[in-house]
Structure formats: structure tokens, C-alpha cells
């Protein structure tokens, strides 16, 4: 599937104060916080985001967090700086940004005619959150 997001509040790695020069090819552990497991759209977006990253090693020290707050998904990238059991010290690596989903299509981005699985209807009244 192809998912479309609006990206906002983007802060690059070099703009973060006290960010270390950190470069590694190890994939991060993923944390999905505040996604309603009973909502089909929340599960679908979690699955799509999980598929962007390979499976991490057990001893990996990178963490990528996707935090849902009022249907805006905040992305943060951290590393664990201490080897001691909880509470662990973490350090933000960057980048950080907010994602707002507005469409999911069932095909690849280069296919001309695909079915739309979900689209945001911002002008409809809705009482509950979508994620």
C-alpha cells in the first residue's frame, strides 16, 4: 500500500542541541504508543510503519518512537546511553517530525489506477479520533 502523510514540525538532526554524531546501520527498536488496538485504521498504519524498518538485533541501542496524540503521529529517534537496567538514559538523535495521515491506497505509488482503501474526510463531523 501507499500511505500519504502531511509532515510538519520537522527538526533535522543537526538542528537538535547536544545531538551526538551518531551513525550506524543497525535498525531501531520500534515503539508505537497510544494507538488504539481496536481500530482497524490504527492497526493498518502501525503495520505500514513497521514494514519500513527491518527487524532489529536484540542488543540494538536505537529506538524509534511513533506516538499518537489527537490523530497526529509524532516521530522521535533516540539511543540508549546506559547499559544499566531500567531506568535507562536515552539521548535524542533526531530527526523529529509529526505525521498526519490523509490517504491510503492499495497499490504502489507508480501505478496509475489503484483502489483507495481510506481517505480523510476533514469536513465531516466526527466525535471520536480516527487512530
Q: Label the overall shape.
A: elongated
Helical amount: under 10%
- Helix-strand pattern, N to C? EEHEEEEE
* Radius of gyration over C-alpha positions, nearest whole angstrom: 17 Å
What is the strand content? Answer: 35-45%
Structural account:
The chain is mainly beta and 131 residues long. The chain is 8% helix and 37% strand. The protein is built from one helix and seven strands. Strands 1, 2, 3, 4, 5, 6 and 7 form a seven-stranded mixed beta sheet that branches. The longest helix has 11 residues. The radius of gyration is 17 Å and the shape is elongated. It starts with a strand and ends in a 12-residue tail after the last strand.
Task: Sum up the structure in keywords.
7-stranded mixed beta sheet, 1 helix, 37% strand, elongated, mainly beta, 131 residues, 7 strands
Amino acid at each position: 500500500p501507499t500511505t500519504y502523510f502531511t509532515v510538519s514540525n520537522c527538526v533535522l538532526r543537526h538542528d537538535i542541541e547536544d545531538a551526538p554524531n551518531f551513525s550506524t546501520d543497525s535498525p531501531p527498536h520500534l515503539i508505537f504508543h497510544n494507538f488504539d488496538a481496536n481500530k482497524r485504521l490504527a492497526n493498518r498504519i502501525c503495520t505500514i510503519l513497521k514494514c519500513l524498518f527491518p527487524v532489529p538485533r536484540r542488543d540494538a541501542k536505537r529506538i524509534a518512537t511513533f506516538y499518537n496524540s489527537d490523530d497526529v503521529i509524532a516521530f522521535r529517534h533516540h539511543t540508549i546511553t546506559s547499559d544499566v537496567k531500567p531506568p535507562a538514559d536515552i539521548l535524542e538523535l533526531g530527526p523529529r517530525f509529526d505525521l498526519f495521515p490523509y490517504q491510503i491506497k492499495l497499490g504502489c505509488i507508480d501505478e496509475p489506477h489503484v483502489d483507495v482503501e481510506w481517505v480523510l474526510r476533514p469536513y465531516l463531523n466526527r466525535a471520536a479520533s480516527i487512530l
